[in-house]
Each structure stands twice: as structure tokens, then as C-alpha cells.
Amino acid sequence: LAHTVELNNMFGQLHSPGYPDSYPSDSEVTWNITVPEGFRIKLYFMHFDLESSYLCEYDYVKVETEDQVLATFCGRETTDTEQTPGQEVVRSPGSFMSITFRSDFSNEERFTGFDAHYMAVDVDECTEREDEELSCDHYCHNYIGGYYCSCRFGYLLHTDNRTCRVECSDNLFTQRTGMISSPDFPNPYPKSSECFYTIELEEGFMVSLQFEDIFDIEDHPEVPCPYDYIKIKAGTQVLGPFCGEKPPEPIKTQSHSIQILFHSDNSGENRGWKLSYRAAGNECPVLQPPVQGKIEPLQAKYSFKDQVLVSCDTGYKVLKDNVEMDTFQIECLKDGTWSNKIPTCKIADCRAPAELEHGLVTFSTRNNLTTYKSEIRYSCQQPYYKMLHNISGIYTCSAQGIWMNEVLGRSLPSCLPVCGLPKFSRKLMAR
Amino acid sequence: IFNGRPAQKGTMPWIAMLSHLNGQPFCGGSLLGTNWIVTAAHCLHQLLNPDDPIVHNSDLLTPSDFKIILGKHWRRRSDENEQHLMVKHIIIHPLYNPNTFENDVGLVELSKNAVLNDFVMPICLPEGPAQEGAVVIVSGWGKQFLQRFPETLMEIEIPIVDHRTCQEAYASLKKKVTGDMICAGEKEGGKDACAGDSGGPMMTLDRERGQWYLVGTVSWGEDCGKKDLYGVYSYIHHHRGWIQRVTGLRN
């Protein structure tokens, strides 16, 4: 009779029918042992005494899993064609093991069969699983009955609970030049990640991209980029997918807004990519500095958004629409024209000096010049007023267009009344 | 001014006449800066109740009661050099005592600046204490001998008297000469200021600087020109801090 016994305990015993008496002939018993996931089964024999036969074709104990035979035992001693378990432990790779005892229709002598025990044993997935598919991406943590994965700082555990991805969906670049690379470049990039890079510049700029350095993205010999890839969207134009080890040629787009998608699946150890980008706009005409002035920065070429500052030599002021100022800024516009014409430089003019109470002003030049470096002299209405602190009263027109005195700066002097000095002196006083 | 002589026109351009609006002069003063007159507090205060030493605002003259005349030489007649200016503020020394004439100094702020010229010029404030024995000049349009008023500004040259001497002279009259006062005059009497000269300048020449500065202002005395009874003046050096605080002036 053949029958099957289902065993689900974490341990147990099984033996041949009639054990410890001899077993009957023509019988078949199968024990199916199932333990929880994360465990394997360890089987060992305490007693083994079966009829011996070539390759155990008569009586045998066969240990197997769903898809392989782990061992077939028979006889009393191990010979070159039969094998007894002896002290050997039989382990299942997984959480299922089936043990079949079979006796044929006759026995030349009495055989007492077998006595076996089994137990569930934890599987340490962290040390046993070598194949890439099943190991953790970064860190593996075993526990009785199972394991889990965790990731290095900065990574997130993917929904597959095995690979580690990064959050890289909000990379925004607004500078006119920059470098963009895969995460951790030049170290292998993370798996299971969707990285978005956006280059967002003002309309009028046109971005060009150039891959540099290493270009190493997992690819496939026949299928174009089925695993990891880069795609570039420039305006309405979509470029890629790119993968493999040969970087794409430099890319000149006509757009000011670029989206770069970098996708990595849950496998592969590739070092990634790096690119530089540069934005350039329409060029503006070359500029000539004004007479008595300069422009900064002085460049051979100017393009959209470039700004220059016009300033004048010392003693001169920028004159723009009849307004005087120290500097004037113009900008290269999107259509390649300058926001303003270059202003002129006008010599600083301090204009008519302020009147001085109880004082007067004299010009040091015949035509009463008031421009840069001209000089005037304040004096007080002598003999009734005198200049406070006896300063020189000489003012020079500064480069800022302000009358300046070396002691008082831009403040006017003060004329104080002279005291005790009558014009009409009296006869000498008596002694 | 007793036993004085006419002043030379323009030799003391800082002198001011305090005059009622009807033209009646009643005190002298000195120009400081361009818009302040220093004079005697008792010129600006009407003693209504001799028994009450406290000065009440109501006892003070009001700015519209009088005017200031600068550049003046003749007492009654006017000439082209005169500047008639109204008063903006009256400030008398906070510690002025009308009964003892202590701190007898007052300041008048003009409603507008004087125009400085050969006949109108301020006097300097003292840089230091006056020296005993130094000769000072006192001037004014006050009474002369026999109570007559002069035609022009008069002046006297007298020496500063030792403070103790002066104190002793007045001690017999039970009059106190305090530290804020200074005396000047001849022992034998004669040259002295008198009524109507109050507030006017006592000045002297700083020989190093060549400038005239104010030593005192005519304040009080016992009668005028009496032997041993010197003229007592408000000592400006003593009041200089107060004057500068109020006027903001400096030499």
C-alpha cells in the first residue's frame, strides 16, 4: 500500500512501517515535510537497515525536493553502488522535503528498516544567496525565518525590498553653465532609480550639451537600452535613449528648457555618465567704450543676457538722458540688440558753489570754471567774520562733482563773528 | 559815567543801548556773536516787591517792551550807523537775587542777526580770570556828575580792585560782595559808573591776542564815585559757562 503523510511541524520523527520490527514487503510510504519560508529541513538517521540491491533498485529510502533527488539510501553498509546515510545529514535547499520508503515484494531476510528525525533550520539568506538576483543591493539582515535589506545613507529601499534607489527627481539647473552627472558618479549609480534633471533658462538661450569623462550605462548586445538609459528632451525634440559605453556626440539644442531622464533598473554595476552644458544666446554687436570711459567686462563677444557696466574715468560722470550717474548698465537682449546705447562721459561739474553766510567765494580760474579739479576759495567777510578753525577755505571740484575741502570735506566752512577787534583803535590805555 | 570822557566813535562797537520803545534808554549791554546781548539781570527785571527775593516771570520785561540799538554813539541823536533790533527772548541768570544783586547777569536774544561792520562788532568772552590791578574800561550813557546825562557815549579807565578790599569796603554797609562780582575804581573815588550805565561793558585788552574781552557788566554800587566805595560789576568769567550754555557761543 502506498500512502502519503503530510508533516508541517518544525521537527519530527519518521520510520519505516513496523519499526523497530522488520518492515513489510511491497509497501510505500511518502512523508511530505513542509516548513515555513526562510527555513530548510535537516534530516538525519538514527538507524538504517534496508535490503541491499544494485543502485537500490529493490528497497530504498529516497530523499527529494520538488525538482531534485537529494539522496537514495539502501543496504546496511556503504558500497560503491549503494549508499547508507550513516552520520550524513541531508538538507533541503528550501522549505520542502519529501521522503519515500519503498520495499519490493520479497526480502531474503528480516530488515529492521530505518529511524529518522528532521528539524527546521533557519536559512541565512545573507550569506547563502550568492546570485545577484536574490542578494540585497546594499545591506542584508538575517533573522530566524527570513531576512530583509536596508540601504546606505542617502538611498531608499525600492519596492522590491531588495534594491536601493535614490530620490533624484528634482534637480533644477538655472545657471548658464553647469555639470550634471549620474548619482554617485564616478561610482556605480544606484539601481531602480528615475532621475530627472531640468535645465531651465530664460527664453532666448540655447543650451548645448557635451558628455565628458566616463560613459558607462548598462546596455544589451541586441536590444537598444532595455535596462538603463538616458533620454533628453529639448523643447519638442526627444533624443535617445542612450546607453552603453560610447557617449553621444555633443548636442546643440535650440531650446532654453531641457529635461534629462535617467532610468536605472534593479540590476547592474555601471559607473554612469557626466555631461557639461552651456547656454548661449544671440550675440550682440561689439561695444566701443565711451571717450574718457570704459566698459566692464570687456569681451570680444557678447551674447544674450550679458551685462556690461559703463563707467567713466576719474572726474567724469556718465551722462544718460541728461542725468548724471556714476555707472550705467546695459544688457544684451534676446534679439541680439543692446538694451541701451552707450552713454557718454561728461566731465564732472560741481556747478555754482553754495553761498556762504557772512562769506564770499572766489574762483581760481578767470572764466569761473566749476568742472573737475577746478578750485574756488571761500573767505569770510573780513574783518568782521573769520573762518572757523582757520582752514584754507580752498575747495576743489571732486570727481563726484562735489566741492571738497581737505579738512571739512563737502561741508561748508563757517564764518564766525570776529570779537574784540574794533577797527577804530583807541588811544593806549593807561598803565 | 562819573568823571569820564567821551568815547571815540567805533572804539567799542559791541556796546548796546537798551531803550524803551519811546526812545528812552535805560541800560547798556554788550553784543556777543551776532544775535545775543549780555546785560545786567536787574535791567530786565522790575522790582515790584522788595521783600520778595524770588524773581517771577511776571516781573520780567517782555520782549516787546524794549528794543536794542547797536552802533550807537550819541545818546539821543541817531546816526546812519545805528541798527535798531527787536528782542526775541529774555533770559536772566537762574540764581539772580534782586536784593543782593548776586548773579546780576541777563541775556537778550535778538529777533534777527546784527549786521557786523566797523561800528557793530561783538566783544570776546574771557579766556581766563581777570588780573587784580589790570586797567579796565567802563562805558555807558548813564548819569554823570550832578545827575546830568551825557550827549555821547562816555568811558572811564579804572583799575580792578582786590576782591577782599572791596568786600571790606562794603562790609560796613552790610552789603555783600560775592564771588560772582568784581570791583573796580580808584580808592579816592571819582571815576565810576552810575545809574543808566547798568548792563554796560567793563572790558580790557588781551595784549597777547590783541583782542578786547568782556570782564564784567555794570551792576551796582553805593552812590557813584564815592571814596572807598568801588563800583561793583557782574564778573563775566564766573558766568561764562552759563552764558555759553544759553547762547551756544564760543570765542
Describe it.
The complex is a heterodimer of chains A (431) and B (251). With 431 residues, chain A is mainly beta. In chain A, 1% of the residues lie in helices and 44% in strands. Chain A contains 1 helix and 36 strands. In chain A, a hairpin with a 2-residue loop joins strand 18 and strand 19 (237-242). The longest helix of chain A has 4 residues, at 125-128. Chain A starts with a strand and ends in a 14-residue tail after the last strand. Chain B is mainly beta and 251 residues long. Chain B is 8% helix and 31% strand. Chain B has helices at residues 163-171, 236-247, and strands at 5-6, 15-20, 25-32, 36-39, 66-70, 83-85, 87-92, 106-110, 135-140, 154-161, 181-184, 201-206, 211-220, 231-235. Chain B has a 7-stranded antiparallel β-sheet with strand order 6-5-2-3-4-8-7, with helices on one face. In chain B, strands 9-10-11-14-13-12 form a 6-stranded antiparallel beta barrel. The longest helix of chain B is centred in the last third of the chain and has 12 residues, at 236-247. The radius of gyration of chain B is 16 Å and the shape is globular. The mean pLDDT of chain B is 91. The interface between A and B is medium-sized, with 18 and 32 residues.
Summarize the structure.
The complex is a heterodimer of chains A (431) and B (251). With 431 residues, chain A is mainly β.
What is the straight-line distance between the termini of chain A? Answer: 163 Å
Give a quick account of the main beta sheet of chain B: strands, pairing sense, barrel closure.
Answer: 7 strands, antiparallel
Measured by DSSP, the beta-strand proportion of chain A falls in: 35-45%
Shape verdict of chain B = globular
Fraction in beta strands of chain B: 25-35%
* Share in helix of chain B: under 10%
Order of helices and strands of chain B: EEEEEEEEEEHEEEEH
Major sheet size, sense and barrel closure of chain A = 5 strands, mixed
> Which structural class do the helices and strands of chain B define?
mainly beta
Number of strands of chain B: 14
Which strand order does the major sheet of chain B show? 6-5-2-3-4-8-7
Shape of chain A: rod-shaped
Tell me, rounded to a whole number, the average pLDDT of chain B.
91
Counting H and I runs of at least 4 residues, what is the number of helices of chain B? 2
Tell me the strand order in the biggest sheet of chain A.
Answer: 1-3-8-5-6
* Helicity level of chain A: under 10%
Helix count of chain A equals 1
The gyration radius over C-alpha positions of chain B equals: 16 Å
